[in-house]
């Protein structure tokens, strides 16, 4: 295990790194890029401060989850992976009826901040390169095990991140967090190589919600459900029609 920090203009901050049988991985991240927002838009990160002890009603969670998952499905269908699904990259955008009045369901969740997104061809090319070190970027607590352990990027990681977001919506607390006295490198190693289960809600949520989360948190990325399968899960049975649903992505230019 390598632990250190490198900062300064043009440099990345390094949290830690390790070596596996196939590659060496450094985990880190730079400052978050500012993103313009409309007057009525706000980040999910802002919204969740108001329910840190109890979570949202499950009906609201279903609606937001469906909106986010539709965006993920659309991104994947276009040949891209977002690679950083977390609450700070979710916008709640007002819904308006045809006469420009707010609807009874006032907000729709939309994915934003595509600075980490990559096309499938870019991901494939990166994986085929032979590098001494792979520099891994992501948001602590939302990175999938395969991303941490082997720098394996792809659509399955977006589903893991979605599961983390759904947990926070349901119970107001993160699915994974650093334990008291635990170092950051120990936390990352536990996430990437351990067998810890996420902190699932225990506040009376439905069996359908718990099963949905279990499908998102399958540690083997090849067995994790994809976006299309999750859209047909009983948890989202009220939102079945993909083709006739408006998909909303926050406007930030092309996904590159």
Automatic annotation (TrEMBL):
MF GO annotations: ATP binding; protein kinase activity
Stretches for region Disordered: 27-56
Signal peptide stretch: none
Protein kinase domain segment(s): 1-236
Extent of Basic and acidic residues compositional bias: 37-56
Domain of life: Eukaryota
GO biological process, one term: signal transduction
Classification via PROSITE patterns: PROTEIN_KINASE_DOM
Xref: PANTHER family: CCR4-NOT TRANSCRIPTIONAL COMPLEX SUBUNIT CAF120-RELATED, PROTEIN KINASE DOMAIN-CONTAINING PROTEIN
The protein's name in its UniProt record: Protein kinase domain-containing protein
């Amino acid at each position: 295990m390598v632990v250190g920090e490198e900062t300064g203009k043009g440099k990345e901050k390094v949290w830690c790194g390790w070596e596996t049988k196939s590659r060496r991985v450094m985990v880190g991240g730079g400052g978050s890029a500012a993103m313009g927002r409309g007057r009525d838009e706000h980040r999910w990160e802002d919204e969740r401060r108001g329910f840190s002890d109890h979570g949202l009603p499950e009906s609201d969670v279903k609606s937001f989850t469906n909106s986010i998952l539709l965006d993920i499905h659309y991104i994947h269908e276009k040949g891209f992976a977002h690679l950083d699904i977390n609450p700070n990259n979710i916008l709640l955008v007002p819904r308006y009826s045809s006469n420009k009045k707010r609807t009874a369901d006032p907000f729709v969740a939309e994915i934003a901040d595509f600075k980490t997104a990559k096309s499938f061809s870019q991901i494939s090319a990166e994986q085929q390169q032979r590098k001494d070190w792979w520099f891994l970027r992501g948001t602590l607590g939302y990175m999938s095990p395969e991303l941490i352990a082997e720098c394996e990027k792809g659509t399955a990681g977006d589903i893991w991140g979605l599961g983390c977001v759904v947990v926070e919506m349901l119970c107001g607390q993160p699915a994974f967090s650093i334990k008291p006295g635990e170092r950051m490198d120990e936390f990352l190693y536990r996430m990437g190589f351990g067998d810890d289960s996420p902190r699932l809600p225990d506040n009376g949520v439905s069996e359908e919600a718990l099963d949905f989360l279990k499908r998102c948190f399958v540690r083997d990325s090849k067995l994790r459900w994809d976006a299309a399968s999750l859209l047909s899960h009983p948890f989202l049975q009220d939102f079945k029609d993909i083709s006739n649903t408006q998909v909303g992505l926050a406007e930030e230019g092309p996904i590159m």
